[in-house]
Specification:
Blueprint (H helix, E strand, L loop, with lengths): L4 H15 L4 E2 L2 H5 L1 H7 L5 E3 L4 H8 L10 E5 L2 E4 L40 E4 L2 E2 L11 H5 L3 E2 L2 H15 L3 E4 L8 H11 L5 E6 L6 H9 L2 E6 L6 H6 L6 H14 L2 E4 L1
Parallel strand pairs: 1-2, 5-8, 8-9, 9-10, 10-11
Antiparallel strand pairs: 2-3, 3-4, 6-7
Helix pairs in contact: 7-8
Amino acid sequence: MTPLINKAAEIAKEMKMLYQAIIIVGGNHVTSMPGETMKEFPIFDIGIVGEGEETLREICDGVSLQDVLGIVYREKDKVIVNQRRPPICSLDDLPFPARDLIDMKKYRGASSPGLSREFLTITEIYVNRGCNWGLCTFCASMKTHQKFRMRSIDNVIAEMKECIEKYKINHFTIDDDTFTTDKKRVMEFCEKVKPLNIKWDADTRVNNVDREMLQAMKNAGCKKLSFGVESGSQRILQLIKKGITIKQIKDAFNMCHEIGIETAAY
């Protein structure tokens, strides 16, 4: 992301010096400004614009860079921006993350404020990708993901079961931009995750919850919800096109507290 792009360039410089590695950068910053990023940071060899799964696989398979959709790269002194890759249609077709390739014990920080890996065995997981609102002026989600898509609940539960059995995970942080986009899906998720007997938290909007949904989430192991509040000023909320009101913020937090779900505001 933009606040970390300079730090990423510093790390890339060290990697290039130590390993003579090809440096590939991805994320919201290069997606938003592909040409500018490559010109400002010559240490980056290739930039991935948008979603990276299929793009990175093609690069690793040795496909000629001129034929790889969704990248920006350097050809001598010229920066080439290829055509954008269409978003992945079926998220269920993607393999589960290869968590076995990292030492998860090294990840000691909180996955979300108040949830420490000192006491919990946590991993992150996605149920949906992108945002179906696309209104907020400050957000890069639609720029990166282009459109909102959903995994099947059964596919999500299968990944959770693998994490529990293989890695002894006992808490999941659902990193969707808006987990509660579709109430019917949330209720299905709660029904199917409850037998796993684990705890979880998620991010959402204050105008995308109701008491029935929150109670089902609590019963299914939801420990905490983080809401995109952004501001306590109605004027600012309108300026950034957040699409929520101060009353909706208060109502959502009050419902969570009454039901027994911890909260955080972003």
